[in-house]
Amino acid sequence: MLTLTKETDPLRGPRVPFGNFSNKTLVFTGGHHTGALEVAKELKNKGWKIVWLGHRFSMWGDASDSAEYKEVKEAGIEFHELLAGKFHRTYNPLKLIRIPWGFVQALYYLIKFKPTGIISFGGYLAVPVVIGGWFLRVSAITHEQATEPGLANRLISLFAKKILVTWQGNLGRYPFEKTELVGLPLPPGIVEAVKNPTPETRRRKQRLFITGGKQGAVVINRIIFEALPELLKKYTVLHQTGNNTEYGDYQTAKKIKAIGYQCVDFLSSNRFSKSLLEADIVVSRSGAHICYELAVLGKKSVLIPLPWASRNEQTKNAEILERKKLAIIISQDQLTVKSLLLALEYAEVLDGKPMELPIDSMQRMVGVIEKTYA
Fold first, then answer.
1. pLDDT digits (tens, 9 = 90+) for 231-256
2. CATH number of 25-186+360-372
3. CA distances from 115 to 8, 78, 101, 178, 266 (A)
4. Are strands 179-181 and 162-165 parallel, antiparallel or unpaired?
5. How do residues 35-73 score in pLDDT, each as one tens digit?
6. Domain 190-348 adopts which CATH fold?
């Protein structure tokens, strides 16, 4: 728990903007764009100008546009690529060079757009923006999605004016007076489904939705390809592969001609929500956002945590659902066709009862932002 006081913490106290940083502009940045985009769109509708600093490409060396870039542009929000770097599990000197370059870029964009404030959704991408904003006297609000804060988010919290958290367990990890529980911003389709559930349409086969996240997951994709003959005996399958050009899983999936199998490379936020709502069982990684959506919907799932996630974050996310009898966990090193099929059998008999979590998180966040920068 961070226990810095006003007397001992040189980063806290009133921050007066340097120059004319007060034009009702907000800079959005961070590693989790799905929830951030819902907040940004609502603020845009309320008359705020939004400038987005993010990833143009999904990963190093990939030539395809990221889901983040596509969805932000589709929402009519101004997007600028930020080439920030990180220390965690980074051994390529060319990637490490991005760390100082990210700070240079962040300062350039902040001086150029003179924002009223910075809205951070955590991760290494947000670090140079938040710290650069602190030097320029532009305050930041940051949102912690994960159950276990990583190094980047703990660093950001020292410079942020306000810290908003998803899970109640994180309230004690940050200074009490600047921390608030808001939950996770959800797409409108998910919120509506929770508020007004409708009877499920009965199908001869159960609907299986497989996703490795917006970028896809090569390890999961390859097991699914191998398991398809068995899966299609029992399920109809919607498989979101990602559109990584290096591995070509989407191209492989498109060649599969089987009744009951549908593949897509990318799903917009609305289509992703619809796919979750229609699914009987979801096979997925266990990032913060997908776990929160599965929890509020009460969806049965098989989760394969990303093994190298910072501070074992994805395993801890998955364990929350496992304890509520919403998920079966398979570690990646134990993922085989046999273990997947067995996990799906266990998942079919899970409780499938929604968890009681905030579903008005977007409105809560917008309220905090507007109150802070009024």
1. 999 999 999 998 877 788 999 999 99
2. 3.40.50.2000
3. 29, 13, 20, 21, 32
4. parallel
5. 899 999 999 999 999 999 988 876 555 657 888 888 999
6. Rossmann fold (3.40.50)
